[in-house]
Design brief:
CATH topology of the domain at 26-161 and 211-251 and 269-296 and 337-354: Rossmann fold
Radius of gyration: 21 Å
Shape: globular
Bound molecules: S-adenosylmethionine
């Protein structure tokens, strides 16, 4: 009898098959999409990311070009909000929307002034070394290299294929997929020692996600940066806390704004995601910052932007214009973005890479 395929392989096909995968057949973030992410709540999130970028630009000595990579950019909503927030770094800004799905990349051009199109590896290298007259935006399927700037990933890592493993007295086992469903038996698997050590913290026999692709993504992102910051925003928790959730509660599926359960039903019809294991992401290098989205946005001045919005609304409330309406909508957006039982509880992880001469010092 066949051992089947690892869950990660099944998930890869279900989400990213170029013809039948969820993201090939128009699955996406947004009010008219399948799930609501922070950029899709409204422009306030982009305005606060713009503030974070300006702070990083200052910290790096205002380089030109200043490269910002939006990894797993989806339809490009964050890029549009950022452009309309007019950050101070805009003249130096080279913004790369890295997106695996062709149907999402096709949306990047919409309402984005300064969009230079989709670039191949050679075009990308030219784009991220060009200077002045920003902001400029380009789409790509790969991360650029040697960048001075920021790599930001909102709800990307939860979407990277993962495996499902557990420890037993005989060793580690992996869940496999046979004929579109979970196999009844499991298959022995050799885990890296450091992952195995993490799993000793959870009760024997408990299924947990093994997020090798997400861990590799962080390593790749850090090595793409010459100096700057990698920022990951996602839902997640520690290994112990994930393992303690009943019924593999770290596994989520979404379709048409409904959170579902069975990841095997009708592959391609729903998103399959996983709460990000921050212990696994910290194995190669601990983040310099781990906080919640609510606290991160407070630190970037969300309360001031909301107060300004309220003022704009009250000043114009008798004859409201677009500025007044945007001001009023900030109040609701901020509530959603900081909601402790929702987006506000998402985690923000930052890894800083500082300019220095020796590699050993470069990361500290
Ligand atoms: C949950 S969506 C998030 C979209 C957007 N960042 C947001 O917050 O609304 C994840 C996106 O990551 C894309 N993606 C998945 N793997 C990727 C990869 N290896 N490189 C680039 N994009 C990827 C998917 O196609 C999808 O559009």
């Amino acid at each position: 009898m066949s051992d089947g395929v690892p869950f990660s392989e099944f998930m890869d096909g279900a989400l990213y098959d170029p013809v039948t995968g969820f993201y090939a057949v128009e699955g996406r973030a947004g009010r008219r999409g399948d799930f609501l992410t922070s950029p899709e709540v409204g422009p306030l999130f982009g305005a606060l990311v713009a503030e974070r970028l300006d702070r990083e630009w200052d910290r790096l000595g205002r380089p030109d070009p200043f490269v910002v990579v939006d990894a797993g950019a989806g339809p490009g909503t964050l890029a549009r909000a950022l452009a309309s927030a007019s950050p101070r770094c805009a003249p130096a800004l080279r913004y790369v929307l890295v997106e695996a799905s062709a149907s999402q990349r096709r949306r990047h051009a919409e309402h984005l002034d300064g969009w230079e199109g989709e670039v191949d590896a050679e075009g990308l290298a030219r784009f991220v070394t060009s200077t002045g007259s920003g902001p400029r935006f380009a789409s790509s399927t790969v991360l650029p290299v040697d960048v001075d700037g920021v790599i930001v990933a909102n709800e990307l890592l939860d979407n990277l294929p993962f495996d499902i493993v557990r420890r037993t007295p005989e060793g580690a086992e992996m869940l496999t997929v046979v004929d579109g469903g979970p196999s009844t038996g499991s298959v022995p698997v050799e885990l890296p020692d450091e992952v195995d050590a993490l799993l000793t913290r959870v009760p024997m026999g408990t299924w947990v996600p093994w997020q090798h692709r997400a861990r590799q993504w962080v390593a790749d992102a850090l090595s793409s940066l010459r100096r700057g910051t990698v920022i990951v925003l996602d839902y997640g928790d520690t290994t112990d806390a994930l393992a303690a959730r009943p019924e593999t509660g770290w596994l989520r599926t979404y379709a048409a704004h409904e959170r579902g359960a069975d990841p095997f039903a009708e592959p391609g019809s729903r998103d399959i995601t996983c709460d990000v294991d921050i212990d696994q992401l910290s194995l190669d290098r601990s983040p310099d910052l781990i906080t919640t989205q609510g606290e991160w946005l407070e630190g970037l001045g969300i309360d001031d932007l909301v107060a300004e919005g309220r003022r704009q609304w009250h000043e114009r409330a008798t004859a409201p214009d677009l500025v007044a309406l945007r001001g009023r909508s900030r109040v609701g957006e901020a509530e959603a973005l900081c909601d402790r039982s929702g987006l506000g509880a998402h985690l923000v992880l930052e890894w800083h890479r500082r300019p220095t001469w020796s590699t050993a010092e470069a990361d500290r």
